[in-house]
Amino acid sequence: MSKRTKWDTKGDLDESKNLPIYQHKATLQQAVKDNSFLVVTGETGSGKTTQLPQYLHQAGFWSNGKIGITQPRRVAAITVAQRVSQEMHCSLGREVGYQVRFDDCTTQDTVVKYMTDGCLLREILADPVLSQYSVVILDEAHERSLNTDILLGLLKQTLSSPDKASKGRSVPLKVVVMSATLETDKLSVFLGGCPVFTIPGRTFPVTSKFSCAIGPKDTESSVYIKEVVKVALDVHTSEMAGDILVFLTGQSEIEKACDMLYEKAESIDYRYDVQDHKVEGLLILPLYGSMPTDQQKQIFQPPPPGIRKCVVATNIAATSLTINGIKYIVDSGFVKQLNHNSRVGMDILEVVPISKSEALQRAGRAGRTSAGKCFRIYSPAFWEKCMPEYTVPEIQRTSLTAVILTLKCLGVHDVIRFPYLDRPEERFILEALKQLYQCDAIDRRGKVTRLGELMVEFPLPPGLTRALLQAASLGCEDLLLPVAAMLSVENIFIRPGHPEKQKEADKKHRQLGVQAGSCNDFTMLLSVFEKCKASDAPSAWCKDNYIHWRALKSAFSVETQLREILLRLQKRDFPMEKFDGNKSELFRRCLCTGYFTNVARRSVGKVFCTMDGHGSMVHIHPSSTLFDQEAQLDWVIFHDLLVTSRIYIRTVCPIRYDWVKDLLPKLHEVDVYELSSVAREEVTDEEVAKWMTKETAKRQTEGSAEAV
Ligand code: ADP
Ligand code: MG
Hints:
The chain is α/β, with parallel strands linked by helices. It is built from 26 helices and 22 strands. Strands 5-4-6-3-7-8-2-9 form an 8-stranded mixed β-sheet, with helices on both faces.
């Protein structure tokens, strides 16, 4: 029997008394009372995330303000809040609630609030001393997410200046930093030598086996998907009872693997094929970020007797969520990660080998309650040659544009000397300043402009925000708000696995594009949004057109929320401009204001060349409505890039050179040192000279060439 249907088994809520953290309840409550900063560490699954907030609630902290807990991942914030609301016998959103981007499930009554680290950062913007909170817990600090790292620096700065910290607060804020057992000394030193509380926990041995399937050259997703499926089935048939956790990279890979597993598991004959006769079936469950929450709940429920559970998950199951009963790990060796790609000068979500420390963490998930086994589908050579020792913190590998704007808006003018736990390379900071300057968020001296103050209010990427604000100032926000919303939700177009169905879906999508009039990917998004909204039966309309109804529903909600933010800002003095021209041009020109950094020009055949100084050769992605029409195009802008063996541009719109002509010089004519004026004292002449050669010298030679 293979199962992937709903299974209702009540989770055992009393189990919390058996968690390692339980014996330290009183000590922890006291430690938080006694210290402004406290680091709490313990093995994953010891009960930090679900229990400590409840202990602090019981100790009465809520009477001085909310207990806030941050999570780097959205799903973790939601799932854990659900669990804790059950444990505290209240409905979600009352005493216990959560807030993630575009989804606020809290009320006046909420005193234990789980949220993403990005949300708390936004709250600090409105209320720098966090006057609504008595305790803030920064959870999963070892993940080293960009926002958590920035929060650490900000809270350190605030609390270390008593004047600032007590302003607008009746009692001092308490900060707890929670982390798996990595880097806790470093955290304590960073926070002024604060105490570290270690929850002692027992772990059981896990034996790890390498395989020869994946070597240093095998990075094709089809290869590792096939391999994890094969290994998971081997485990199922040849190992004793116990659940399996498979680590894969992302939603589409996970769905593919689950389909393959399901199909293959169907043909197992449990009388002959399975070693352990107590095992009578396989329950296959996917787990990834954008999954509906009711499906996520099933992950935690114990499987019915005789059934082995096999969870196929992203890295979220490595530390953020603990699933009980896991005895076997199948590790693909890969993770999907946002990295700054210097080849194209942008952040790109890419599949990369995990680090060795990550691999150990993954394996450890099999040894929580008894000895376990970890099956690595990669070879020792892959381990040696491809896997770094540690994962590089996000702050050192992604774009800093949004956080630097936040810091500037918080009055941290000197962004170079901000207390970073790990300092990002200066060129990344300078790059962020340059981008902020290019979209008019800061002025030449690095000061936040009026526009920058407006931009920081939107939880969107800076370019998109800039385009939206431009549209609003021209009175055509109705064109851009739906587009911004559609770009903020998961993919809306369904791509069926079956080739015939795929053809039909492509045809439907193309028709939607044609109906959109001036055909480009942005108007396509607008058209889908408007048509679905106007439909009497929107979910049927979606089904008929191969559109994800769930994604569209979120887009409707996101649009409303973005509109609310805009309305609030428009009540203050909001810049207004006039435009005479047609609507299609207006729309595309607004996009240009935000996306002129993502401009490309067709060079030969189907190849385009970007204009941002990187001069990358790019192709239009096959999912674009403009695919195969390249010959008719000249200049285009695009929303993002996908790098495989080629570089693809996605969500594309044709433009006229005239519209970006005056903006393009901004891509090159920036004196980054002027922007970071405060940093000037810190840099050596040598470093200045390095930049001189890169930036200024280029301009100087261009200037002299013109003179000749
Ligand atoms: P830590 O933060 O120390 O890693 P957690 O507090 O996340 O530990 O987990 C403690 C226990 O709570 C684990 O046994 C885990 O399986 C359980 N748990 C957490 N979330 C849920 C949930 N949504 N449903 C059922 N059990 C859960
Ligand atoms: Mg945790």
